[in-house]
Amino acid sequence: MATSLPRVARIRAERPVSEPKAVVFDEDGLAKCVREWQDRLGLGDWQFAVRIGRARNMTPDSSASLVYTWEKKTGLLEVRSPLDCPDECGTGAEVFVQDMEADVVHELLHAKLHTWQTAKDSFEEALQEQVIDDLARVLVCLKRQR
Ligand SMILES: [Zn+2]
To answer: Which single residue of 53, 104, 110, 117 has CA 20 to 30 Å from 5?
Structure first.
């Protein structure tokens, strides 16, 4: 469920969501963002703890992650600290701009689509990540165009 940085960076380079400025929150702002998108995505009955984490404690090459128990509708959503971006987020010539809101939507879509299970490191998992990431970008883009 971790967001893959190289692919995310590639999408951003190809289709910027909006202006190329970082969208960064503190933990209060992150919690508000999660609440806003929970409601928008029909996940209002879930309880999510949120945390801004350091890269060294997260899945390598991930900008965010979500661990959840769908039976209890609870989860821990963690987003990489801006202290670890952009230096560790850039890949080659690609420009990475941290967008915590897009990361939140991506991770919440995993909860929304919890019945869509895939085998770890499978083609289906890669496809799922791509579909979820595309949907997250479109949803955030639509919100920002209002
Ligand atoms: Zn993901």
So the answer is: 117
Dump pLDDT digits (tens) for 82-91. 888 865 555 5
102 Cα to the center of ligand 1, angstroms: 11
Of 82, 86, 108, nearest in space to 26 by CA:
82
CB 82 within 8 A of CB 26: no
Residues with CB under 5 A from ligand 1 (ion): 1, 129
Mean pLDDT of 107-123: 95
Question: How far is ligand 1, taken at its centre, from the CA of residue 134, in Å?
Answer: 11
pTM assigned to the model: 0.82
Distance 101 CA to ligand 1 centre (A): 14
In three-state secondary structure terms, 17 is coil
Cα distance between residue 133 and residue 114, in whole Å: 15
pLDDT digits (tens, 9 = 90+) for 53-99: 999 999 888 899 999 999 999 999 999 998 888 655 555 545 568 89
CA distance 142 to 130: 18
Q: Can you tell me the distance from the alpha carbon of 37 to that of 54, in angstroms, rounded to the nearest whole number?
A: 23
